[in-house]
Amino acid sequence: MPQNEIGWNRQILQGLAAQLPYNRLVLTLALDTSSPCGSLAVLRNQSVIGSISTWTDEAYSSRIFRHLEFLLGEVAVGLDAFDLFAVVAGPGSFTGLRVGLAAVKGWAEVYGKPIAAISALEAVAAQVRSTAPVVIPVLDARRGQVYFGIYRRAGAPEQPRLVLEGDERVATPEEFAAELRTRNLLHSGLVIATPAPEIVSSVMTHREGAGESAAAIPVDRVSAILAPHVGQLGYLHAQRGELTDALTLDANYIRRSDAEMHLKGPRGS
């Protein structure tokens, strides 16, 4: 992207962020199309005033617009009334993410509103009520792998936040367990957060094989319905100026698509 275009885009984004009405309630539309358990939510600041979700084998991207029409009718709000759009940018289903991001890009461009791009893993981690200093959200990545990130608590006690350490990753259970050992996290007061504890059990098995006690790591089962938490995080991101727009919004797939894997082979090959 040319330098003058980058500068222009930043000016536009700063202008959009400055328009957010922090002297009154901010109306946010949040959506998650990263998994079959997709969801939509409408929030005023961090209070959820309406949400809808379903969990079937059918991709949520095929139902999002039907659900959106129903939800907006229930809360009596039009798309033009929103101050902020918050969306899961990944990781998750490639097709689902593309549909969700395309929808948000369109709305943001038409109505001139900013976007908060939220990680599905951050939305999982944000649900933990434990005071453990390290939170590790885990999601099923299929193919015998998991998505995970390492989040540490930071900030003042009255305004705590979770800060990602390094990058979010995809790994086998063996690689995940090895990562915890390498980073010396096994005894640092951590909690694993996941909507699917069964995918963590295999990680624990590999950890036990290394001579560690699996029971020592608490696992917090959280909701797979992410949109309400995405909206709350989106509001906090907006407060910190961590926003994007229709031009710069991009997916965080973490793992390459099947087509890319077929053309390029495994990473590093």
| Fraction in beta strands | 15-25%
Average pLDDT for all residues: 85
Computed Rg: 19 Å
Number of strands: 12
Q: Which class of secondary structure composition applies to the elements?
A: alpha/beta
CATH class of the largest domain: Alpha Beta
* Number of structurally distinct domains: 2
String of helices and strands: HEEEHEHEHEEEEEHEHEHH
Main sheet attributes: strand count, strand direction, barrel closure:
7 strands, mixed
CATH homology superfamily name of the largest domain: ATPase, nucleotide binding domain
The protein's oligomeric status is single chain
Count the DSSP helices.
Answer: 8
Q: Show unreliable segments.
A: 1-8, 258-264
**What portion of residues is helical?**
25-40%
CATH topology of the largest domain: Nucleotidyltransferase, domain 5
Shape: globular
CATH architecture group name of the largest domain: 2-Layer Sandwich
Distance between the termini: 29 Å
Describe the structure.
It is a single chain. By secondary structure, the chain is α/β, with parallel strands linked by helices. It has 2 domains: 3-119 and 224-261, Nucleotidyltransferase, domain 5; 128-221, ATPase, nucleotide binding domain (Nucleotidyltransferase, domain 5, 2-Layer Sandwich). It is 35% helix and 23% strand. The protein is built from 8 helices and 12 strands. The protein has helices spanning 3-18, 64-75, 94-111, 120-125, 173-182, 197-209, 227-239, 258-264, and strands at residues 27-32, 39-44, 47-53, 84-90, 115-119, 134-142, 145-148, 151-154, 161-164, 169-171, 190-194, 219-221. The strands form 2 sheets. Strands 6, 7, 8, 9, 10, 11 and 12 form a 7-stranded mixed β-sheet that branches. It has a 5-stranded mixed β-sheet with strand order 3-2-1-4-5, sandwiched between helices. Strand 1 (27-32) and strand 2 (39-44) form a beta hairpin. The longest helix has 18 residues, at 94-111. The chain is globular and about 50 Å long. The two termini are 29 Å apart. Residues 1-8 and 258-264 have low confidence and may be disordered.
